[in-house]
Amino acid sequence: MITDLGETRDFKRAAEVLCARGWAEASAGNMSLRLAAGGPSVAAGASDPARVLEIAVDMTDLISDRFLVTASGSRMRDLAVDPREGLCLIQVLDSRHVRLIDGGGPLSSEWPTHAGLHSLFKENRRQERAVLHCHPLSLIALSHVFDNEKEMNDRLFRMHHETRLFLPEMLGLIPYAVTGSKELARASKEKLKKYRLALWDKHGVIACGKNLDEALDRIEMVEKAAAIYLLLKGAGLEPAGLSDEQVAATLRSAKK
Question: Do 120 and 59 meet the contact criterion of CB atoms below 8 Å apart?
Answer without folding.
Answer: no
